[in-house]
Amino acid sequence: MSKIEQEISKRRTFAVIAHPDAGKTTLTEKLLLFGGAIQVAGAVKSNKIKKSTTSDFMEIEKQRGISVATSVMGFEYADCQVNILDTPGHKDFAEDTYRTLTAVDSVIVVIDVAKGVEEQTEKLVEVCRMRDTPIIVFVNKMDRVGKDAFDLLDEIESKLKLSVCPLSWPIGEGSDFKGVYNLYEHKLNLFAPGTKYGNVLEFEDPNSPELEKHIGERPAKELRVGLETITSVYPEFDREYYLEGQLSPVFFGSAVNNFGVKEMLDCFVEIAPPPHAYQTEERLVKPDEEKFSGFVFKIHANMDPRHRDRIAFLRICSGTFQRNTNYLHVRKGQKMKFSNPTTFMASKKEVVDEAYPGDIVGLYDAGNFKIGDTLTEGEILHYKGIPSFSPELFQYIENADPMKSKQLAKGIEQLMDEGVAQLFIRNHNGRKIIGTVGQLQFEVLQHRLENEYGAKCRYEPIQLFKACWITSDNKAKLDEFTRKKTSFMAKDKENRDVYLAETPWMLDSARQDFPEIQFHFKSDF
Ligand code: G4P
Residue 347 pLDDT more than 60? Predict the structure, then answer.
């Protein structure tokens, strides 16, 4: 194997996703502890906006500062380089998470055993399914009374539309939780809070009478029945299916008690995919190609308003990225080189000389990058699949300080490049509409415009149900549509046509009247 092939095969780049409170932060922290990336729990924990402080900007600022440091957390484990990409837990920043998911090779979904599949989990998994991202499910909080394991698997299958295959199986629950049987390694893992990862015993045959000795009669009987049902109902684990995103292994555990985490991590490094090939508009790019290429999936502004620099996070997709080397910024058609590319290893920043596919590097940027930008050694490539999703909330944005209109325009432009929210400009009157996934995004935008650009804005309500991108092979029909609906048409920041439907009824009737036109709810089509 060549050096680059070796480096690629070692990489495991993934994200942990969950509905808030399911245990994403706790699990991430335990993974980092097992990986030796942090020494004590609590290092990641502070990277959260508390639910009670949705409007507390100090909290948001703090979060931004910390989340730069925890954007990518890496460690070596079992000869693998594990890169965890952090995603904001707050649902109002779900768009950030969607974008981060374009830069991973697999995900771990955390589900709270008592709450089951929640709304945010459904949305995030849907985004993963669109790309067939391989998914491992971790059912958390087994130390609490929760749903029956089979019911939960049914719920995962129906709500998340995943085929599942349990690789561990719980014994008891809540205060009677005894541990899990690991079907992947044929081990019995007995729950022992306060230990590093429970008491693990080799246990090839669950029918052995030894089982009763360890867990007692009734739990042993239940476990055997459970295992029998699993074998008859669920498919056997097949790595190929998992890698194609067609089969999701499920583990049960309790992150806060260190339980079930190590066995999932051990399995993860073994089965999870190394960096995958990426489809660009031009061609498929494979990670082991000699020439470097990558794309920016996230931009982080400096918190200090006196220094307007930002950090652009680049996912390396092929070849070897090198410090101080000239690369082509494809959209700008300019050569650029980076003297201080940085990795973020759990709160420690380090300058990197070389990075490989699957790695994320932070590039200091004075405003040259937009989300989705591609860097290459010279080839014209455009990475695909960093969609914007049709926002859920809309407001007009207006200038509240006529002396600062330039600053406002610049601020809006740069913050949109950073992906803080989406901007639509109405065709007939040029009014600017901000679209978001959550209320907090409006507040962040207003706050940052004021603090970083010295501009003031105010919002005005707008009656809008959906903004969707429209396309058609029939140019005449498209023209007719935009003409007829002119007061409901807008452009996004890439100058694409967007139809603004005020009500579900308007959208339905527009679709009926113009069957030749496609209405898209995300921007990559
Ligand atoms: P999130 O990032 O998905 O939002 O969840 P987070 O890890 O912050 O966990 C949410 C709450 O669930 C935390 O409690 C955490 O301690 C708890 N938790 C995580 N894993 C388990 C588990 O296996 N069992 C039980 N019983 N609880 C678990 P909190 O009270 O909100 O915060 P804290 O004060 O404990 O930090």
Answer: no
CA of 21 to the centre of ligand 1 (A): 6
CA 22 to centroid of ligand 1, rounded, Å: 7
Q: Is the Cβ atom of 17 under 6 angstroms away from ligand 1?
A: no
Ligand 1 neighbour 190 (Cβ under 6 A): no
DSSP string computed for 236-259: PP-HHHHHTTS-EEEEE-BGGGTB
| Domains of the chain as residue ranges with CATH | 9-271 (3.40.50.300), 278-376 (3.40.50.300), 393-520 (3.30.70.3280)
Res. 50 pLDDT band, cuts 50 70 90: very low
Check residue 54 and give its pLDDT: 43
- Highest mean pLDDT pick, 27-41, 57-71, 78-92, 427-441: 427-441
Tell me the CA–centroid distance for residue 215 and ligand 1, in Å.
27
**Cβ proximity of 121 and 19 under 8 Å:** yes
Assess whether the C-beta atom of 141 lies below 6 angstroms from ligand 1: yes
Residue nearest (by alpha carbon) to ligand 1 atom 32: 21
Q: How many CA atoms lie within 13 A of 164 on its CB side?
A: 27
Res 68: pLDDT: 58
Model pLDDT for residues 232-290, shown as the tens digit of each residue: 999 999 999 999 999 999 999 999 999 999 999 999 999 999 999 999 999 999 999 99
Span 60-70, mean pLDDT? 59
**Environment class of 215 (CB within 10 Å of its CB; exposed 0-12, middle 13-18, buried 19+):** buried
